[in-house]
Amino acid sequence: MNQPVGSLTPDHRIGDWIGITDHHVAVRSGKVELGQGITAALIGVVATELGIDPTFVVSVPPTTESPDEGFTAGSLSMSMSGTALRLASRALRRVTATGDGIPVDLASVTAAHLEARVLDVIAEISTDALAPSMPRRDAPHADLVGKLTGQPFYVHDLRLPGQIYGRVIRRAGQRPDLVSSAAIDPGKVPDLDLLKIVRDGAFLGVLARTEYAAISAAERIGTAIDWVSVESRVSEESSRVEVLDRALVTDDRNHHVRFTRPHLLHASIGPACAIARWDDSGSRVEVWTHSQGVHPLRRDLARALGLDVSALHVAHVPGAGCYGHNGADDVAYDAVLLARSMPGVPVHVTWSRAQDLSCSPVGPAMEVEVAAETDDTGHIVNWDWYGGGEGHIARPGTVAGVSLLAHSEILSGSPMPASADPAPAIGGGIIRNSRPIYDVTVRRAESTLHPSNIRTSAIRSLGAYLNVIAIEALMEDIARSQGIDPVEFRLAHLSDERAIQVLLRAVELSGEPSTAEAHGRGIGLARYKGTGAWCAVVADVECIDRVRVTQLIVVADVGEVVSRDGVLHQLEGGALQSLSWSLQESAPIAGGAVNANGWAEYPIARFTEVPQVIADVIDRPGEPFLGAGEAAAGPTGAAIANAVTAALGVRIAELPLTPTAIMRALL
Q1: Distance CA 107, CA 364 (A)
Q2: How many CA atoms lie within 13 A of 362 on its CB side?
Q3: For labeling, which of 71, 249, 289, 636 is most exposed (least CB within 10 Å)?
Q4: How far are the Cα atoms of 338, 400, 464 from residue 124, in angstroms, in the given order?
Q5: Residue 313: predicted pLDDT
Q6: Distance between CA atoms of residues 422 and 444, nearest Å
């Protein structure tokens, strides 16, 4: 069987993915809802394949009893879970002998039908018969009404019987002095609602009857005790991204650009939150979390606690969104440690804004350098790439040791493991999207992983963001230096028809560019990871006292479209986050720690800075599903950077494109 099988294994049965209850279909997936609309998309897949109304399909929130699909990351949810559910649905159609174009009779489905192994059933179906046979059925985003009207929805809103509240007393780059923290007497923190102060090495927290009491007690104790600076693992100097000093020739036939990006924060509007409860015997643990991977988190928690994985039940509850490895896993372990001191009682823990900004894993700083040689006709004949930066992965289970923050603080714990880079087979980190989409000969490609004195990990699109910016900058610069239209120059180096179509569609939608002074237009194009969605972006900017993006055109090809609205929302969201990174985001690092307590220290784009965004998607019925969430990050950054160069006539290669960075380039 040559077709993709997503997350399916030979042992998976139909009932592992699809359940039938009271004439309704229950969708079971290991991919979690992070605001990307995956729940509606997966419901749409199953409803379409079974030929039933989406209102008869419900999604079961992922837990550690759901299929293990690892992390919800890498824009792989549709290609992995969507594909698995499509095949499971077709297998159900097959075993119930339901003909093409006929809805599956849910009342006729038996337990024996659900016990059939998916891949065994699918193997009996010809490839031609696997083409869509039912009209697409769009599922509504049922969660939106509750979110927009402020109904309880997130893990922050969850209230369990007998629930109490915990807060961790923690500062980035510092640890509580053991002597001063041990001297804290609950009687000296007067509050009738304060229940307990929890200490374990450098891990310090409080438990209280109310959230307000927990916050107040944590603040008072944090002010009263002494703090000791944590020694950095490496020096400040060695943690910086190095700028290579190579003698690169730049002339009519040799072209070169070098870009740097700073550390980036996740900066979710809602801070990390979790609830944990030990049973009365202290031998089993339940956790409610907005983690991206309930199964990997469960395994890391079991390793940290010295328990068998069967002793832990981890359930996903939506949080405020996620853009990579944020603090969700860490706060879950905080909740588990605090709850251990009061068995049988659920403990609700939320990080402060300062903790969420400064204690979560940080997006790595990075540098990319690309060079190209052109022939007498201006065509590119050779391409060189170099990338350097810190590790892009430190998720639970992806590095040696326990990758949970509090485990480096408790007496029985261990130091935080060093960040690594994902393997090339899953897209890589520094090297992600380092190979151009264009028909060029890559003569040399080299990357260097630098040690870091802070914990770096995955942030949306990993190295693809900066690699695409650098590649597209060089393409634009070569075209302009030769007086060639940037679109025509790209087309002259493209044989990928799907790339050509998204590029031409974006240009078509963009209209005529402004000819006003200090206005510019730029283009960005890439295929995410070289295997995912194609995306083209056209950006228009105005550069007067600062860079203001006036319009973004975003066009993608994500294979077969299940939920058009969902895809467009993902493209718009990815483009706007990239805009924020490109124009203003830069984590303040000092003393081996993030020095940000609020939005004043780490500003992000505001509603007043949102330009007109026109998103479009090219539907490819019958083609494999491809994810949309990360596809726009690199092309958007590239389009904005190229538009600024078109407006000002100078290449600004230091991100973000702040007035200060622009003045340095101009002077």
Answers
A1: 53
A2: 31
A3: 249
A4: 53, 42, 39
A5: 98
A6: 21
Tokens 């022939």 locate to 375
Q: Where in the chain is the domain with CATH 3.30.365.10?
A: 14-139, 152-236+267-360+402-407, 254-264+363-392+428-666
Contact 327, 281 (CB under 8 A): no
pLDDT for the residue 131: 54
CB 275 within 8 A of CB 302: no
Q: Which residues contact 302 (CB under 8 A, 6 or more apart)?
A: 308, 309, 311, 312
pLDDT at 243: 40
Question: CA-to-CA distance for 538 and 366, rounded, in angstroms?
Answer: 24
Tens of pLDDT along 91-111? 999 999 998 889 999 999 999
- The distance between the two most distant Cα atoms of the chain, rounded to a whole number of Å, is 82
Tokens for 444, please give them.
């040399």
User: Which tokens go with 156?
Assistant: 């922050």
Other residues' Cβ atoms within 10 Å of the Cβ of residue 3: 13
Helix (H) or strand (E) holding 337: helix 328-339
Q: Residue 292 pLDDT > 70, yes or no?
A: yes
E strands along 146-304, which residues?
164-168, 174-176, 194-200, 203-208, 227-229, 254-261, 273-278, 285-289
What would the two tokens of residue 262 be? 């700073």
Q: Across-strand partners of 198?
A: 205
What pLDDT, on a 0 to 100 scale, did the predictor assign at position 187?
64
Q: Does domain 14-139 have CATH number 3.30.365.10?
A: yes
Of 194, 166, 137, 630, which is closest to residue 432 (Cα–Cα)? 630
Residue 547 has φ and ψ, to the nearest 5°, of -85, 125
Return the SS3 of 404. coil
Instruction: Return the C-alpha torsion angle 337, 338, 343, 347, nearest 10.
Output: -120
The residues, any chain, with a CB within 8 Å of residue 99's CB and separated by 6 or more, are none
Q: Does domain 152-236+267-360+402-407 have CATH number 3.30.230.10?
A: no
pTM of the entire structure?
Answer: 0.94
pLDDT-based confidence at 133, cuts 50/70/90? low
Amino acid letter, residue 100: D
Q: Does the domain at residues 254-264+363-392+428-666 carry the CATH identifier 3.30.365.10?
A: yes
Q: What sign has the CA pseudo-torsion 127, 128, 130, 131?
A: positive
Residue given tokens 């969104």 in the structure block? 321
DSSP 145-174: HHHHTT-S-SGGG---TT-EEEEE--BTTE
First to last CA, the chain: 61
Distant-in-sequence, close-in-space partners of 425: CB < 8 Å, separation ≥ 6: none
